[in-house]
Amino acid sequence: MMSPSNPTAAPDARTLTSRTAQLRTGLIAAFLATCGSFFFWSTSAAVQHDRANNLRASVPAWISLLGVGFLSAPYIISWFLISRREQKSIAMGAGVACGFFGGFLLASPHALIAMFLYVGLSARNGPPDHGLVLAGFTLLALMVISLWIVWSAFKIGKVQWNTFGVAVGATAFYLYFGFQSLSLTAYRGQRGAEQKKVQSEMELYKPAILARETIIGLTACLLRNHMLHPEGEYPASLNPPPANWACQTKFASDAVPEFTLGYEPQKDAASGRMNDFQLTAMPGRKGIRGREPLLIDSRGIVFVDYPWEMENVTAKVMVMPSDFSNSQIDSLKFNLDRYVKDKGNGLAPPTLNAEIGGAGYENPISEGGRTRLEARDYETLYFPPRAGDSNRYALSARCKSYGQNCLRSYFVDYDGSMHAIAEPRAATADDPAPPRCEKGASECEDMIWEPM
């Protein structure tokens, strides 16, 4: 007979019952610590803020339920097996618990480091996030409880080592390959959700996009005709179209779903001539995301009353998106000024290269003493320094897809001044400066427009 002090001896029934009770207590404590950690994590201010500002599609609910089931299965199986009175069943349940919580202990340092990182980030502008701190403490408690469970399960494993070892191995196999499969399933589910969200966003914003394209196309026709007949006036009405209307774009107030189009010529008070116009696209009603009033005039700028869609919020007239940002002329000017200051010893370069040109352009082409940069919607020309003025340059960004993706063309003169025009030609130094709000998403304070 083996001595009771022999560590390899199987425990008697009373000892086995006591150790099983300890394991049950550990499992209950682990369950409570896990629930507490998830609760504090999910209700923390930082996580709530990220959820409110996250633009990505949410993970489908069935994937979250699948993950809960995947992690709950070993726990439930272990509890069921150790609840039976057979030694083989108890040893198997202890093996499952040992493998499951042992796997958690292997992964816990990474989780703990991530938790400390989140707590540190939350404390950058004030005290640490209380919810994240509590979640971190419950995670530490869960690590201690897991150590206790692994030790208790290991002592129970003396009942039947082979059964215990097989259960540990099977649980490790389940966790490793199951986690791989779950990660792949979650990735595919997330991609599917993102695709559905993109499709939904496209459907949501389709009327607004169509309204924008329609008034841009109509404006392009008006400006082309006016450029060909500068002595003439803008038409008094677009329905029916004027006699010299040579464009395919037709005006109809109900041409865009959920929007109503409007056209009003603007009469000059001094001369009495119709020297400008306003094309508007008004949403049918408020409260629908992606439905803001649009207005465009002879400047070729699409003004947006944003956020008109939101109740109890004062909307502001803005330009977004703008041809100015689409042309990239400001980014190119910034790159050139930085080059002149940091690398050119105060001298502007004779030509451009891909590094100065920046992203979004094809390879620069030198011709006729100028450098040409091509993008989807804009052709940009770089004019090198003139004789006797080696630190200055000029830029021209001409709209290529006129009436489709853009209307405005821009010119940066040698003195650094900016000029813009909405006619189908390159801008020059004689054209007016663009309004300040066209250069950034700011309120157009000089634009008087209050859509009802």
| Shape summary | elongated
**Number of DSSP-assigned strands:** 11
Taken in chain order, the helices and strands follow as: HHHHHHEEEEEHHHEEEEEE
**Largest sheet, spatial ordering of strands:** 6-7-8-9-10-11
Computed over alpha carbons, the radius of gyration is: 35 Å
Query: Which spans have pLDDT < 50 for at least 5 consecutive residues?
Result: 1-8
Count of discrete alpha- or pi-helical segments spanning 4 or more residues: 9
C-alpha end-to-end distance: 96 Å
Largest sheet, in brief, is: 6 strands, antiparallel
Instruction: Determine the structural class based on helices, strands and strand pairing.
Output: alpha+beta
The oligomerization state is single chain
- Average pLDDT works out at 86
What is the count of distinct domains?
A: 3
In percent terms, what proportion of residues is strand? Answer: 5-15%
Kindly state the percentage of residues in helix.
40-55%
